[in-house]
From TrEMBL:
Membrane topology value: Multi-pass membrane protein
Protein name, as recorded: Uncharacterized protein
Keywords linked to the UniProt accession: Membrane, Transmembrane, Transmembrane helix
InterPro entries (UniProt xref): MFS_trans_sf (IPR036259)
Coiled-coil portions: none
Superkingdom of source: Eukaryota
Similarity section: Belongs to the major facilitator superfamily.
SUPFAM superfamilies tied to this protein: MFS general substrate transporter
Record keyword Membrane present: yes
Main location: membrane
Subcellular location: Membrane
GO cellular component: membrane
Amino acid sequence: DLKLGTQIDLPEKELLSVLIYTKNNLCFFRLLKHHARNKPLYNIFQGMSIAVLGPTFQNLADNVNKNVSDIYYIFVGRSLGYLGGSVLGGVLFDCMNAHLLLALSMLATTIGLYGIPWCKKSLLLTVLMSVIGSSMGILDTGK
């Protein structure tokens, strides 16, 4: 007999939470499916890719021939990209294959992070950071 908030553990790959609401003798099931196996690894790598700006900030400023205080807007670009990517991801996950979208977002994040050291113009660096932010926003929407 299932009660409100009952947890059902499935073997290794999936964790299934079942919440049962009763109203007028009708039961409504809400299934939340989590892929718990790869989640810690994903969180570590995404945290590293977000935090990479801190230790490399002086080097990025040197690459674009600016002072550290003059390139603060790359944080704004990444945050606006993240916001836009979250909104875009919400729309795209309804229209296309979720696995394909997640793979493309991971590829965009990888290419963006790889291309950061070769940015010699501050505008190009800001655009690249915005692309990285938007792909991370899509990834967070879909995970």
